[in-house]
């Protein structure tokens, strides 16, 4: 074989080697795909995680089987300096490159926090939040027990800090920090408590926490706005006269019996500051998350001379109102008979 032919074959051999190497590298680092036993799974990256932590998590979750290949490619793609904590959806068939880009460009999946009537108190809020996010219960509890932060930022205290929560859905990063979460909640709180509502509360002689607490009772009595305005008027009349509120929803709260359809005399015996049959004035804080409708209904309560109200015997969501206890007793008896007839205990 001539020298010229030898050089040509050597050149061709080099090309073949380069091509095979390229093919291997492409399929090793770019073509190989994740093989899950389900459609998708989630990768959770904690605050302060480095590339080794991410790699270990991927291996532990059985998302990748070759950590060396992932780590090599991740370094080449500069993931080590672009790690964003959060929750990432890894779908079956993703390549290593796609996984790296997911984290590198912070394409994380937000967590939905739904604040509704299923959250009755701060303890349930703490448990719910810690279960949904990276933060633990202690971090949330510490913030909610910080008297200075609550007073300076929201004019609240640990007893009525539940008033800070506004019903609705909040979408956040799984790795959101406690301070950041409460900054977001504070923004929602301040959007509700604009200057108009704040001024209205002052005008009728109540603080913001007091209005929220009263509105939570009103909301628990009825979901109908016109009824809420009349009920708020009843409770405000009673407060002005120094009467006990005697609000049944506060008994359910005091006894941790939120689904009760009726309250009994034994319920009134519980020794709790939320027992408005025993203690005068408003309870220490709200008994549920309060809607804007209930807040506005309380701020714009109906002015009348009623001191009592009772659900109508038709159980249609409306109430009968009375200025005297004698009249109230007649309505109450009809209501009790209606409840008995329906077997509601």
Question: What's the quick description here?
Answer:
By secondary structure, the protein is mainly alpha-helical. The protein is built from 14 helices and six strands. The longest helix has 29 residues, at 3-31.
Summarize the topology.
Layout: H1 3-31, E1 40-45, H2 51-60, H3 67-76, E2 86-91, H4 96-104, E3 111-115, H5 122-132, H6 137-144, H7 147-154, E4 168-172, H8 178-192, H9 195-203, H10 208-221, H11 225-240, H12 248-254, H13 292-299, E5 308-311, E6 319-322, H14 325-341
Antiparallel strand pairs: 1-2, 3-4, 5-6
Task: Describe the fold and architecture.
The protein is mainly α and 345 residues long. It folds into three domains: 24-104, Endolytic murein transglycosylase (Dna Ligase, domain 1, 2-Layer Sandwich); 111-192, no CATH class; 222-304, no CATH class. Helix content is 50%, strand content 9%. It has 14 helices and six strands. The strands form three sheets. It has a two-stranded antiparallel ribbon with strand order 1-2. Strands 3-4 form a two-stranded antiparallel sheet. The model is unreliable at 12-31 (pLDDT under 50).
